[in-house]
Amino acid sequence: xxxxxxxVNADSxxxxxxxxxxxxxxxxxxxxxxxxxxxxxxxxxxTMIFSESARGLGGEGVASEDEKKFYTTTIIPECxxxxxxxxxQLLAPMGCRLSFLPETLDAFQEDETQRAAAFAxxxxxxxPVEVVGPMLGVELPEGWTWEQIAALKEQRxxxxxxxxxxxxxxxxxxNSQDNAKTVDDLRKWRRxxxxxxxxxDFESDWIxxxxxxxxxxxGTNGWRDALDDVIVSYTGDEDDRREPVLVAxxxxxxxxxxLRSATEAVLNGHxxxx
Length: 274
Prior knowledge:
Elements: H1 28-41, H2 46-49, H3 53-91, H4 106-124, H5 129-136, H6 146-170, H7 176-196, H8 209-217, H9 223-235, H10 253-273
Helix pairs in contact: 4-5, 5-6, 6-9, 7-9, 8-9
């Protein structure tokens, strides 16, 4: 009967505790161990879970490296997998594409800044772009390779050489003085740019406007090769790719004068003695 009433003797009831109470859940050691187990199983570095204690063990540098490792070994591969599935099953038929950009994360920005500075420094010193890029681990956009960039640079160099040759053929026969002035201005432009570490602004009455535009079109990382190619196309000497090193000659005028005075004094004294 649902409405029946029974009397229970409390002394005859034996309580049985099932599970743990709230007090036991405050066990800090147990909770910390479980958090470590969960973080390890998910590939999360402990420095990201225990920011106070773990960072103190290895310093801020270790924590930063662990954060990058977490992205590169756990997050980014998962993002790539998700993007490939979504693109294949959903977005591709609509002509769209999902792409993650992990390099824009704050954890990677400092590395990218240092890599960009090193890239510009190497290229400005004369190393080819296709050599510096792989050496520093620079990633190219999809569909590009360093071999393609090298071939494109060679193609543009050849086009510039052909343009210079055509320009030379169209000029009057007696243009050696003009060419000398053009080469002189090109070398001045190269020296000025080398000092600044980038393509400097330059005005010239002798460098053809088309040539200057072509050099500027090579951008930040290609101007040195472009200037070298143009100078060589004028002179025909591959050694002109290297700027001659000027050795400073000390001024010996005072030294010569002092020696001359000393010599005269010795001679005059010897003459008086005789």
